[in-house]
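Weekly puzzle thread! Below is a chain. First person to post its structure in token form gets bragging rights.
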Amino acid sequence: MDSLLSDLRFAARALLLRPGFSALAVVTLAIGIGVNAVAFSALNALLFKPFRFPAVESLGWIMTRSPGNAHALSSLPEYEDLARSARTLDAVAAEGRMPLSFHDGTRTRQVWGLLVSGNYLTTLGAAPEIGRVFTDADRSASDVPVVVSARFWSNELGGGDTIAGRTITLNGRIASIVGVVRDGFQGPGGFYEPDVWLPLDRMQVLSLPKRLFERSQPWLTVVGRLAAGVSSAQAGAELQSIASQSVAVQAGADPQRTLSFAPMSEGAPELRPIARLAWLGLAIVLLVLLIACFNVAALLLARAADRQRDISVRAALGATRSRIIRQFALEGAMLALVSGAAAIVVAAWSADLLSAFSLPSPIPQRLHFGLDRRLIGFTAMLVVFAGIVPALLPALQATRVNLVACIRMENALGPRPSLMRNAFMVAQIAGSTLFLTAALLFLRGFLAQSSTDPGFETSHLLVLELKPSDFAYDAAHSKRFFANLVERVAALAGVERVAIGDRVPFYVGYPKVTRVSAGGPDCATAECRDVLVYGVGAGYMSALGVPLVTGHDFTPQTVTSNDEVILSHNLATRLFPDRPAVGEWVREAAGGRQLRVIGVARDVTHRSLGETPREYVYRPILASEFADTVTLVVRTFGEPGLLVANIQDQVRALDAGLPPGSVKTMEKRMEMPLWPARTAAGFLGVCGALALTLATVGLFGLTYMTVSQRTREFGIRTALGATPRRVVVLLLREGVALALPGVLIGLAGAAVATRFVSASIFGVSAADPSTYAASAIVQCGVAMLACLLPALRATRADPILALRAE
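Winning reply:
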């Protein structure tokens, strides 16, 4: 123990005697450990934290599978059947997200809620900060009980220590607050951040859409808790039996619908593809730590050259090889501990760093970052790795020298070059070049995708999405509302054109599909094509900015006739390859209606930029479609963002109790399809920048230490006539000699690695020579800059002092 304490004191003193070296090593390891800790905090919040419930091993999702959807939701009647029939489950609970109108005393706006079964919060072990959660007595209560989140309680309701007498207005009804749930409770969905929870039993009082009560309307996520002694396989078998009985009993039930039990402790099944990507991302980030370790190992090897005489003397005086190795390991551990502490602080405040990569979704989502045992344990593993690996090889090499050999090496030219040290430096530069090349490829792909022409004019365009049917509107009432809204918005100053549709490009949701054929024959006698459908109003094409190749836009008269369509150019050429489409007829398979073609529109991007053009047809919006989400398209003369508040005011003027919905510019809406490319480019860009920084710092530190060890050599060279320019060129040449092999290896590695992700890089070949050349030039240029300052220091070596030393 005494010897260990002595070695600890010696290690601390050795590091403090070289503050520049110690600071460089700490910063290097802090970058490597920190970026890994931040990445793991995101993975921790994504995969583990959402499912931290009491007795989570007995909880699971009741998964509904139907054709084309492996993770379908359940309807309210289906949930009620499960709650009555399941015997292997102690509890069956359900949740369904729902937008609600909230009147804050001055105006109405939208908040997000969860409609939950009465046992939902108790089943998941939600602990209220104030008050209580729902009980059986709430089913027969005269008022509407509501549980609010701690965030909503403090930010929107002013907070407080008591809920006595506190109410809020939701969907036009007074709701009594019975409890406040602690911050961070999100339920098994993990990401969704509700403002309020309301009981399913009070749906009718809240004037919610009648379709939510229908068996054909799936909208609930169902969870269950296993009964004592019951396995998940037993529960799954019973659920499948319940599904089969439902088919036999319920008219119109889907015979292909199945039920299964998915244990929550194994993670959400729909998140497993994301989980694989997340683990892959963490593996990529671990390479940054490896580069940092190579960096510190090279620095320790360079420093070990300065300590060879000291180590040889200690060995001659009786120090064992294990004692010397332990000394190096303790120094490495101290460096890693300080770096790990800095990394923990960075990870604890990483929410702002990671928010740049958050999904631009209209639904409130939140990942909870912060310290927990899992993150601290992961960081501790990194500290152990970063403390041992860089110190081990220098320690082993240092123990191979003795006093005599050390004295013989102390010649005028300084210590011999270390092949191992140079190999570490080459490995750093290779890893940095690989990251830099991949980052440049994905950045160019993102820029190419973001500059792709979507087929319509995206500037000066506002889009309002509103679903009045969620707020007690029927289809007829909604249709009248939008007719009035179009008139009001069209009269606003700065508005050029206004139109409505059931959707616009880059929408979120499932597409509408129909089958059409050219001419009079139906699908039984002619080839039909599956096409996408847009239901639109008068002037939609001009408001959206879609050029018409031929024909004309819908007018108020043609919209009401409901027997005319506009085809996309791709569809028109497929249906009528030998003649103009305008004036021709197409037959719709559903109903057999014949529709006259009045125009051919330019092909537009449907869901993602750069996709292969799809075939689609624009037809007049149906009266029944006003029962769903309706989109208002507004083309402006000037900056569209300036009209957002005015449009929302027009919604409130027509109905003060209706939230104004989501109003965004088209450029803002396009952030969603660009998110994957932007995230990949940003992620690899951060890793590439860090790797380049580590390689630069490592090469600078190594060259600087080498120069300090070769002071006498440069002094003698100067005394023999070497000019400062020749000394600088010598050191720059040595730096480039290290950089070039690393660059070539890194480029080769990038060529191999990017082949596996070439399909994800838009508009740029994975073997693009200009990108590889740019990466090589940047890496070599940075390497020369890293060597320049130490080289200039070498020119100041005093030849008189060097000769006196000899």
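Puzzle host: Confirmed. Bonus trivia for everyone else. The first strand starts at residue 59 and ends at 66.
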